[in-house]
Amino acid sequence: MKSVLDKFENEPVTIELTDSKTKQKFKVKIGKYVLQGITTLMIGTTDKISLLPIFYYALSKGDTSLLTQLINRLNNRTISDATSSLMDCASGVSKERQEQIRREAGETLLGDAINFPFPEGCDVWGSPDLGDSYRSQVNSSVPTLLISGTLDGFTPVSNAEEVAKGLPNCYL
Question: Maximum CA pair distance of the chain?
């Protein structure tokens, strides 16, 4: 992944896409950040995460056909549900956490692409951050089941472990 991402950073690739409505073809240049973003979308879905090895292998050999297919699908889809984006914006992060994210992003393969379009994109939605009190520790003695998985690229097991600290009758 690193060698392919480095290559795309130094030499963005031009691919040809097709608009599904007009059937017009157009060219776009794909650089490292877009490839990082596509990768984050792939790790967030069980049907696409399994494609990552072949996706990066093909790109390492100069084959952009799968990349073109994925971008065509993304480009031609319609977004009908803003609920998850609004929830992410409202949940927000503390200033300390945002600084940690900025510091650590440069040390990772996917950089800050996994957080796109947050937090900057939240202004577009007009969704207010509910603040630190909203993000405070949940404490409850109600029996609770938390389900988490190691293949969830967006919600790591450590998040559930943190929540479980305030739930003495919790099973994770």
Answer: 59
